[in-house]
Amino acid sequence: MRRFPVSFVIVCLLLVQSCHSDDKTSDAGAPQLPTHEEICACYGLYLQGDYAGYVAAMQSCDGKTPAYRKQMVHLLKQHAKLSADRNGKVLSVRVNRIEPHDGGRMLNVFLITQYEDGTNEEILLPMVYDGSRWRLQ
Description:
By secondary structure, the chain is of the alpha+beta class. Helix content is 39%, strand content 26%.
């Protein structure tokens, strides 16, 4: 598998860091939607093989045992391997659409991934606003 350049990793970390901004709510009280770059950086953890980082970004894994988190990492590795075996590596990811729910505090983000074999796949990435930043559900 090809390694990502260091500059890509730095940009991803900066984008994730920007999610911690204190001014993430609109005038109506609903949080501002994450940027496409923030969403792709979050999904980029998975694409880069940082499965522990991806699990840490999941709000649903907060408070879970280390054994549970380890199982999640293992499942993500298996899924990535199966996907790579079936379609090759991911060449690109883009946000197709964002559907807000629950007063704008939950999102269904639809990503289009393009694989090495030419396959395009739409992926649902549910996200939630935890009061200060957007996270994977």
